[in-house]
Amino acid sequence: MQLGMVGLGRMGAGMTERxxxxxxxxxxxxxxxxxxxxxSLEELVSQLDAPRAVWLMIPAGKITEDAFQxxxxxxxxxxxxxxxxxxxxxxxxxxxxxxxxxxxxxVDCGVSGGVWGLEVGFCLMAGGDDDAIAHVEPVFVSLxxxxxxxxxxxxxxxxxxxxxxxxxxxxxxxxxxEGFEVMKQSEFGIDLHEVAGIWRYGSVVxxxxxxxxxxxxxxxxxxxxxxxxxxxxSGEGRWTIAEAIAEDVPVPVITAALFARFASRQEESFAxxxxxxxxxxxxxxxxxxxxxxxxx
Length: 296
What we know:
Structural class: alpha/beta
Number of helices: 12
């Protein structure tokens, strides 16, 4: 089928290429990339035959909102907008309602697969009305590996499911990170690259994330010397925790994993200074000067 792809970054470029390989006619727009067919959203829309389908694969927030609002003014009743970014599901529900007012269909689609999706496929979690899903389903089938796509529910369900998916990812990554640090600090001189390698086969903790960690050790070395321990978050973990609180669901692992990311961004924790000062005050425990080597 024919599709307009907005955004040719790490994910969008791979998706565009995968669709092209499967025979789809993909027009594209990205103001930051040379290899595109259109120089504006207006030109992109003009290159598509009705009923049109436009896929947004751009950062969540203002960039997505601006593109969505502009498309509402360019598209016609019966056309479909797919948001494949990591938008908040509440925004997706609102956009679905705004689209309905103009007769424009809206699908929120959580996408997982990263830069590897081009070759192995993208896992897709789609939310929206049945007719909207049916319009773009040929694209979903081409993008996803076998059994890697589902229409998970009504408007908002796709991005809600992807939000929880990413919250779970936080916990899994943190567990690997902590376990490998315990091994690194042990007395045994364990080869972390080797352990990550053997755990990929037969172990109950084997996973794609573990395969990626093994690849990282292979590329960067077992000490990861060239990588700073600063871990960002893109919002989905926070949203998952907020929804869990609203639903009275305990999520201690995901919450701890998010807070560990916060801690990674501190050059020095003021909370740790407070702890040290309190131990000194009530128990006379020694404190270290700010410029003292903690190993001394």
